[in-house]
Description:
- This protein is 26% helix and 34% strand.
- Strand 32 and strand 33 (583-590) form a beta hairpin.
- The chain starts with a strand and ends with a strand.
- The model is unreliable at 594-604 (pLDDT under 50).
Amino acid sequence: MFDKILIANRGEIACRVIKTARRMGIKTVAVYSEADAKARHVRLADEAVLIGPAAARESYLVIDRIIAAAKQTGAQAIHPGYGFLSENEDFCEACEREGIVFIGPPVSAIRAMGSKSEAKKLMEAAGVPLTPGYHGDDQTSELLHRQADAIGYPVLIKAAAGGGGKGMRLVEKAEDFIDLLASCKREAASSFGDDHVLVEKYITRPRHIEIQVFGDSHGNVVYLFERDCSVQRRHQKVLEEAPAPGMTPERRAAMGKAAVDAARAVGYVGAGTVEFIANQDGSFYFMEMNTRLQVEHPVTEMITGLDLVEWQLRVAAGEALPLAQEQLQIRGHALEARIYAEDPAKGFLPSTGRLIHLAPPAEGLHVRVDTGVEEGDEISPHYDPMIAKLIVWDEGGESSRARALARMLQALADYRVAGVANNIDFLSRLVACPAFAGADLDTGLIEREKSYLFPEDLALPDEVLQIAALAELLREAALAGKRAQRSADAHSPWHARDGWRMNATAHRTLLFRHGEAEHAVEVAYLPGAWRLALGGEGGERRVVEARGELNPRGLLRVELDGTRMDATVIAAAGRRHVFVRGRAWQLAAVDPLHHSGEGGGAEGGLLAPMPGKVIALVAAEGARVEKGAPLLILEAMKMEHTITAPAAGTVKAFRFAVGDQVGDGAELVEFEAAAAA
């Protein structure tokens, strides 16, 4: 076994590998960019080496610097994690040349499966079922268009070197093919340095089911059952589970055999995943093989009781697989939710900033949190905005999945994140969605259930305002108490914030803004409590008596008219983040003495929703366009975001050229709306 390994990655997966290595008594070396100097994986590792600037292409993707770091620190092996160089054959060859063990498959397997089109040819020869499609080398637009017409719409254009949901476009009619092909090729070239694509028949209501395989250098190959990854948006996985709902033993055996056949066809060694598109009728087709550990590997670990990173290390060290196929068993049901810094209400745009409050649910037998960040860390615009993976497990025979769903709902309700937009509320709705709860699964579930998952009626409950007001009052009282302790006369009544008035009750008004609406909470001071009033002026007046206790972490024990509950209220930069009953609400605390000017940006300007790079100007300066017309394409987090016209009008000027980097909130386009008729 190795004495020391280097982890050529960052974030959650680097921390995950460090955890197993430490348990096995193996020293770890982290590599980091300038942006990650204070990152969690750097803090956890035994040693750390700086490898370059923030941009991944100048640090985490520079093979020579990572090899040099391994030689400098005496690491005997390199674990690539997932993403970055994990499936890069040049990196694998460089390790081999330098006598460093690559903790993954041989370069021949990476090369064979690195191109989706070449992999399809190999799988066809091995007898693995394939989706109808074109996987050839002729990449002219005209030929690809003809092939798509022959296959029949809808078709899926996929980057041959793609992965992670990038470089994929669904084409539903022939007239859209050329534009979507160009977009797909741009994204493929940007993300993978290769714009080669393949075209496949798009299966209606497909399920995405993948098989975890493992091989060793002694010729043994096993499959560790399946994962259902059907719940996706933009072809990226959102929720994963194991085992797949509705999977029969016969179908599992058939898919397992196909996956093992695929692995054997390329002489596979180490952890890999064979991904299949599955029809609702039970038929399935090979999609691709990921020659690395998957993001969703924890659900397999939870149902098998195994540590797949440990298996990787043992196999890379030359050991045989710890178990044979007949020794592997499924126990219970597991779910994984990816907690991201992104805003579902804005098309899942990534969010950046400091995690001013981060409180995950308590871990134990049923709940696991894999993360690369801690409270106070930054979610950077340079890398994937994942905060954590939340994994739950439970067992109970046929009710195992229902129990796991209940565990996930509770764990999401207990998760507290403030400082960046996040998808926790969205995930809670997704898990509770009747279609998902009833296992009516396919890759279009999120789009199909849009009305449930993106409700328009998000009216602010009275109790959220009452809790925010109570927290404000308790925080003021606590601050007054601290000031009193620092004064010469700590017991002076002038320090008190209890609203005392001679022969009268003190009143005041607290103002909060939610969205565009402003809400007033009238406060009357009572002995040991407050009377809070909402509404009035023609509407129903709602009054409660409130008291509570607030700790420095924002945990609030609330009592409203004798009803007790727990909540969390985080105050930061004029914002009040209220967590109650499994929901999160963000309010702005309004200073009634402050009157801000109208407007928040340049009049007539369209602003960048996040930092990124301008990759295309779609409209022309001076052009008249209709509402919703594409104006400009921004690339951020290796994804394309189209800036559209907010109304019919004229494009007066572009503020940036193609290739320019822009900051969050930068004015992109000077736009003049047409006068109303």
